[in-house]
Amino acid sequence: MNSEIQQRLSAFRQKRRVQAGSLIITVFGDAILPRGGKIWLGSLIRLLEPLDLNERLIRTSVFRLVKEEWLCTETIGRRADYALTAAGRRRFEEAARHIYASRAPLWDHRWRLILQVGELPQKTREQVRSALAWQGFGMLGGECFVHPGADLSVVLDALVAEGLSSALSALLPLFAADSRSAMSASDADLVSRAWNLPALAEAYGHFVSRYQPVLDELQRDQRLALSDQDAFLLRILLIHDYRRMLLRDPELPEVLLPAQWPGQQARLLCKEIYRRLETASSRHLDTMLCVADGSTPVEDATLANRFSQDDPLSR
C-alpha cells in the first residue's frame, strides 16, 4: 500500500549525502512562515527525524544557517526559537512567487539589462553574480546580466538588502526597447546564450517522471491510507525538489521557451499533488509544530492554500 509514496520517501532516506540546510529552508518557507515564521529547535528536529535526519545533523545545519544569516535566534528562557532573518525571508518570498504561481508571466518584449560598468573587487563581483542569479538573471559575457521581466528597482533594493550597496555605483540598469537591434541577436539566440535550457528541461523531465506516479496513486485511490506524517513529509520533499529547479529557472515567458516545454507540466503536477496533501499535512503541523514557550502557532489564513484555486490551465 502507498507504494509510490513510500518509494519516494525511502529514496530520500537512502541518500548518502543530504543537503539538510537547503531542506530546512524549504520547511521554513513552506510550513513555518505561514505559522508565525519561527519554531523551537526541538520541534524542528521532531518534524524531520522521520526522514532519517538525525538530531546532530539538524543542529549543525541550523547553526550553519545562523552563521550564514539565513536564520536568527530568539531566546525564551532556556529554549530558543529560530526564524528566518529579514534577508532569508525576502529570499524565500521571492522564490515563493514562482513556486506557487499558476503560470509564467506575460512578456512586454523588453529585456532588462544590468551592466557592470565599473570595477568591483573579486569577492563583491561574485556576490553580485550570485545574488542576480538567485533572481533569475542570465549572463552574457562576464559583465552583462539579462532578464525578460524583472522589476529593476526591486532588484537593486535586493542587492542593498544583501549588503551590496557599495556595488551599485558600478552597475547600470537599463531596458532594451528593441532587443534584437540592441543586442545584435535574435531573442532565441540571446536565451540560448544566457541560460542552459536543455539542462533545465531535463531536470523538469526528471521531476515529472518522479512525481507523476505519486499523483496517479493519489488519484487512483481516493481513500488512500496516507498518514498525516507521511503527507507532510511528501509535501516537503515535493516543494523542496520543485524549489531547487526554480532556483535555476529564469521563468521565461512562454513565447521565449522551446515547444513542448516541460516546466508548465511540472508546475501543474506540483500544484495538484500539493492540494491533495495540504489538509493532512496541516493536521500534522497542528500536532507537531511548536515554539519555545510550548504554544502552537495558528496558520495565517492569508498564506494557506497558496496555490491559486482559479487556474484555467488545470481545468
Characterise this structure.
The protein has 2 domains: 1-105 and 196-307, Orthogonal Bundle (Arc Repressor Mutant, subunit A); 111-176, Alpha-Beta Plaits (2-Layer Sandwich), CATH 3.30.70. It has 315 residues and is of the alpha+beta class. It is globular. Helix 5 (86-99) packs across helix 11 and helix 10 (197-220) runs antiparallel to helix 11 (228-246). Helices cover 52% and strands 11% of the residues. Strand 5 and strand 6 (144-147) form a beta hairpin. The strands form 2 sheets. A 4-stranded antiparallel beta sheet has the order 5-6-4-7, with helices on both faces. This is Phenylacetic acid degradation operon negative regulatory protein PaaX.
Which tags fit this structure?
single chain, 315 residues, alpha+beta, Arc Repressor Mutant, subunit A, Alpha-Beta Plaits, 2 domains, four-stranded antiparallel beta sheet, three-stranded antiparallel beta sheet, 12 helices, 7 strands, globular, disordered C terminus
Strand order of the largest sheet: 5-6-4-7
Known CATH architecture of the largest domain: Orthogonal Bundle
Percent range for β-strand residues: 5-15%
Separation, N- and C-terminal Cα atoms: 29 Å
Give the count of structural domains.
Answer: 2
The total of helices stands at 12
Rg, Cα atoms, Å: 21 Å
Question: What best-fitting shape do the alpha-carbon axes yield?
Answer: globular
